[in-house]
Amino acid sequence: MLVTYIVTLLVPSMQYAIKWEGGELMKSKKPAPQGRANIYFETNFKKSPVFNENELTPLQAQVFSQLSIIEQDKIREGYGVVIVDLKDDKQICSFNMENYRPPDSAIESFARRLLPMIQEYYSKEENIRDFEAHVAKQGKSKANKNGEK
């Protein structure tokens, strides 16, 4: 898995949905897209800088203080976290994302999934010719930019 997500919904509101089913009107509860989602990104903790609560912006400090101790500890450990407003579908703030680096295991997993597709692509002569033409075109383009002939 490239990225691990742990989502916590805060203050969800409920709304009723009317549904026509089998000739009857059915009333069911559906969660409205309101509240916040905290998205935690697995990261390479060896490369993560130390979290410093004194460097938080006022908005980050306010949001951080509203999080549970467990959520705050994940941020202190170095997890990248994005807080999203579900109603507006906009980011409220983030923590530890400026230096986010996926863990080596995620990169290796991604590469293992990608490699067979690359091998299959280059197993066809047509694709190899297309790639070689692309490389030649790029080389000419760079040469023209540098004033070479």
Q: Give the strand order of the largest sheet, numbering strands 1, 2, ... along the chain.
A: 1-4-5-6
Average predicted confidence as pLDDT: 76
Distance between the termini: 46 Å
Helicity, as a percent range: 25-40%
Indicate the radius of gyration in whole angstroms.
24 Å
- How many structural units, i.e. domains? 2
Notes on the protein architecture:
This protein is of the alpha+beta class and 149 residues long. The chain folds into 2 domains: 7-95, no CATH class; 104-145. It has 4 helices and 6 strands; from the N terminus they run ββββααββαα. The strands form 2 sheets. It has a 4-stranded antiparallel beta sheet with strand order 1-4-5-6, with helices on one face. The chain has a two-stranded antiparallel ribbon with strand order 2-3. β2 and β3 (24-31) form a beta hairpin. It is elongated and about 60 Å long. Mean pLDDT is 76; it is low at 1-27.
For this entry, give a set of tags.
single chain; disordered N terminus; 4 helices; alpha+beta; 149 residues; two-stranded antiparallel sheet; four-stranded antiparallel β-sheet
